[in-house]
Amino acid sequence: MARPNQPEAGTRLVALAEIPEPGAKGFTFGAGKDRFECFVVRWLGGVFGYVNECPHARTSLDWRPDAFFSRDMSALMCGTHGALFVPESGACFAGPCKGQSLVRFPVALDAAGWVVVSER
User: Fold this and answer.
1) What pTM was estimated for this model as a whole?
2) Are 76 and 69 in contact (CB under 8 A)?
3) What's the rounded Cα separation, in Å, for the pair 20 and 29?
4) Are 76 and 61 in contact (CB under 8 A)?
5) For a Cys-Cys bond, which of 25, 28, 56, 90 suits 96, CB 3.0-4.6 Å?
6) Order of strands across the sheet that contains 92-94
7) What is the DSSP letter of 2?
8) Which H or E element spans position 38?
9) Sequence ranges of the domains in the chain
10) What are the CB-based long-range contacts (under 8 Å, 24+) for 88-96?
């Protein structure tokens, strides 16, 4: 089920070349209580999308714009309580939400090299 202000399938988000590997880029659609925040992760040749919300505290993961990775770039990290997540699955393996997962946001790579919102 789509959330308010969630972009539609086919929406171009970013050219893949603009995201370092490993790296991530965040996006915000809308404003106020109905805003939708997501981010795209480039990791081990893959591209993954997640809703930008920690399953523990319901806060954004990034501790500054586009800063979603731990210092050693080995895991996604919640800037609020330090929970660590597997980049390719979103599963939390350390911290207060261990055993939970980030919510997937469907993305794909199009023929022109853009990360786009996908159907699933």
Assistant:
1) 0.95
2) yes
3) 22
4) yes
5) 56
6) 76-77, 84-85, 92-94
7) P
8) strand 36-43
9) 12-117
10) 88/41, 88/43, 88/44, 88/46, 88/48, 90/48, 90/50, 92/55, 92/56, 95/56, 96/56, 96/57
pLDDT(89) > 70: yes
Q: Give the position of tokens 């309580």.
A: 81
Architecture in CATH for domain 12-117: 3-layer Sandwich (2.102)
Three-state SS across 62-107?
A: CCCCCCCECCCCCCEECCCCCCEECCCCCEEEECCCCCCECCECCE
- Residue 108 pLDDT greater than 70, yes or no: yes
CA within 13 Å, CB half, 38: 25
Residue with tokens 């500054």: 64
Given a cut of 90, whether residue 120 has pLDDT beyond it is: no
